[in-house]
Write a structure and sequence with these properties.
- By secondary structure, the chain is an alpha/beta fold.
- It has 2 domains: about 190 residues, Rossmann fold, CATH 3.40.50; about 170 residues, Rossmann fold.
- It is about 45% helix and about 15% strand.
- The strands form 2 sheets. A 7-stranded parallel sheet has the order 3-2-1-4-5-6-7, sandwiched between helices. A 6-stranded parallel sheet has the order 10-9-8-11-12-13, with helices on both faces.
- Helix 9 links the parallel strand 9 and strand 10.
- Helix 1 crosses helix 14 and helix 8 runs parallel beside helix 13.
- It is globular, with a radius of gyration of 21 Å.
Length: about 400
Amino acid sequence: MPPRPIRVCLIMHSTRSDNLGVGALTVSEIEILRGLARDMGRDLDVTVLDFKDAREPYVSGPDIRIVPFDRQAMTRPSGFLALARVSDMVIDIGAGDSFADIYGASRLRRMFVLKAITHLAGTPLVMAPQTIGPFTKRGSRLAARLFLRRAAVVASRDRPSTEAAHALGRRDVIEASDVALRLPYTPPAPRDGGPVKVGINVSGLLMAGGYTGKNDFGLRTDYPGLVRRLISHFQDHPDRCEVHLVPHVIVRSGHKVGEDDLAVSRTLAEEFPGTVLAPAFASPSDAKSYIAGLDFFMGARMHACIAAFSSGVPVIPMAYSRKFAGLFGSLGYDRTVDCTGEEASAILGKIAAAFEERATLAREADKALKLGLEKLGAYETALRRLMEGTRA
């Protein structure tokens, strides 16, 4: 009789988020799990507790089940509690960077409740590689300390997050990297000649001034002005660059339109004739496949930058939080510019200089990517140990 499938439940992942970065985490996590199960000769059953978004799921197959994530799933014994009880493990990726109190109490409270239900079910909780902290309030620090201590596995994706976990009392932290380094994509066909293709990911959220329009992220840079200067710089460049505007958060009409990269990119494409507007990608892998065909890239959505970085495209991440420098810096790739601490002219100068030495950037990124995949291997080893311990 063949062994039963390994049952895994994913929380704080999404198979159909408008934010393709969150989607990239989910697709990559499932890619890792499928690879491990295949190597072990075991089948896999993955259940994703997912928000009721209208987009078609990025992942499918007989090993995938999507369960709506709503209040009833949180409160009814027949909801997430029952699901956690029949799972061999629950993997929580915290939407990448939400295990912190800087995004408001509601989101963090929901994460704490999911962790508490997992522990109540007696199921091992895996905190997949993610940003940990900051926790600025005493109550959230105490709760974070409790849940970090009780998790079966805690993995961070950068050095500052490892240090934050240590400060909260969790010593055995796996410092990995972002699972989206594993995001599958279609490499571009060889290209002989043609224009130099420069990609710019423009954040709709930063163009809008943050969630409230009041510079929520404390940018020192005039971000809209910087974006326009960057487009003009590359359009006027002697290399006759072809500028591609590449959205990575693509919002349905009427839903969180202030966060939409596609809408602001469309407006900029009209303002700057000759720019190329990338399509409204159906999946994170579609976006990465497009980005992989560019010659140089910059962006304020971290996972758009990871897509470039992990597909061999020289990239300048344009940071609005510590997660950018934390992730790339932990791999020795120190090309991030800081929109919260640098003036627009300084950032433009760094990006312009980086473009001229993009072959050097490509070599640096290749070396850093090898390190990232090696560090991610430590997380995969911890997952495999848990999977090997499941009842056949």
